[in-house]
Amino acid sequence: MTQVGIIMGSTSDWDTMSHAAETLDALGVAHEVRVVSAHRTPQRLYDYATGAADRGLKVIIAGAGGAAHLPGMAASMTHLPVLGVPVESKALKGMDSLMSIVQMPGGVPVGTLAIGKAGAINAALLAAAILALSDDGLSLRLQAWRAAQTAGVAEAP
Ligand code: RP5
């Protein structure tokens, strides 16, 4: 059953958001990927966010660049945890994305990650950690992923 929904404002965000999908793949977490723009496809966003919980999704990862209102709007229409990934923009290097995702007024949280690839990977890891609270198998896979990362760090350059 699909547990994580990865949404992004544009196909141009896929270079970044594919890292979230790859990380979920590595952890064996079923997910779906959709382009859902807050300003270009508002009805699609409404339908996606309001229907997400009923379809069985547990976590939404939302990536957007520039005036990145997608994660906040998604969070406003679902009680599911929403993790926001600021996509690096050309004009302001993703600082605009970061500020517009992280500065949610109190009451509608978006768990905001780092700009770009690191944020996409970490959003997937956080989504997995959330799901692992009630999934022992996933918890073990997540611990193994972390152990492999540790084992891969060289003692010297
Ligand atoms: C946002 O506008 C998207 O999330 C994307 O990061 C940015 C630019 O979109 P495109 O013009 O590349 O489609 O909605």
TrEMBL record:
E.C. numbers: 5.4.99.18
SUPFAM superfamilies given in the database record: N5-CAIR mutase (phosphoribosylaminoimidazole carboxylase, PurE)
Catalytic activity: 5-carboxyamino-1-(5-phospho-D-ribosyl)imidazole + H(+) = 5-amino-1-(5-phospho-D-ribosyl)imidazole-4-carboxylate
Pathway given in the UniProt record: Purine metabolism; IMP biosynthesis via de novo pathway; 5-amino-1-(5-phospho-D-ribosyl)imidazole-4-carboxylate from 5-amino-1-(5-phospho-D-ribosyl)imidazole (N5-CAIR route): step 2/2
Entry keyword set: Isomerase, Purine biosynthesis
Gene Ontology molecular-function annotations: 5-(carboxyamino)imidazole ribonucleotide mutase activity
HAMAP family with a match to the protein in the record: PurE_classI
NCBIfam families found in the cross-reference section: purE (TIGR01162)
Protein name per the record: N5-carboxyaminoimidazole ribonucleotide mutase
Species, as recorded: Sphingomonas palmae
